[in-house]
Amino acid sequence: MTKKNKKPNKAISTAIISALAYIVLGFVMIFYPDKVSIALCYTLGGALTVYGLFNLITYFATRQASFGFEMIVGIAATAFGVFFLISPQSILGMIAAIIGILIIVDSAIDIKRAFQLKALNVKYWWISFIVSALIIVFAIVTIIFPTFFADIIMIVLGIALVYEGVSGLALLASIGYFAKKVKSDAKMIDIVPDNEYEED
Predict the structure, then answer these.
(1) I need a surface site. Which of 96, 114, 159, 190 has the fewest CB within 10 A?
(2) Across residues 82-89, what is the average pLDDT?
């Protein structure tokens, strides 16, 4: 297998894994919205705390005499991390915004795939385009107006993630099917010789 073939296969595998992860995370968010939101907050707080402490340890371990950048980052990250661990509810809006951005990025990829279907002359490519565009608008609304959905924001974002995962898998399957069909039709045209008729 050539390097050119390995890259598309790797990209497809990554896309499939991402889509499956979206579906799993989406269902967890739908059925356990409170637990997921708190868990994500603690995860972010813990990650920031570890990152901050690592910077502080690195700074003092190297015995730098000057007030370095590592120390500033370490103090700030540790402070935010501890604050998030103590008060996880304070960053629920941030978590929702991060998930919203993730949905926007994935919907933009779905729009690109919709245009790939158009290039393959698929009749109803525009349905995926319109739905993906609406999902982007919805995600932007959740970021700008998080209180609009209030307590059900995690459930709503979970539904959006499930859709993104399912639509991603469906679009990948459709692109693969129609691409093979186009190649197959092209080969058939090459195999069948032109009929030449000679006039007597």
Answers:
(1) 190
(2) 80
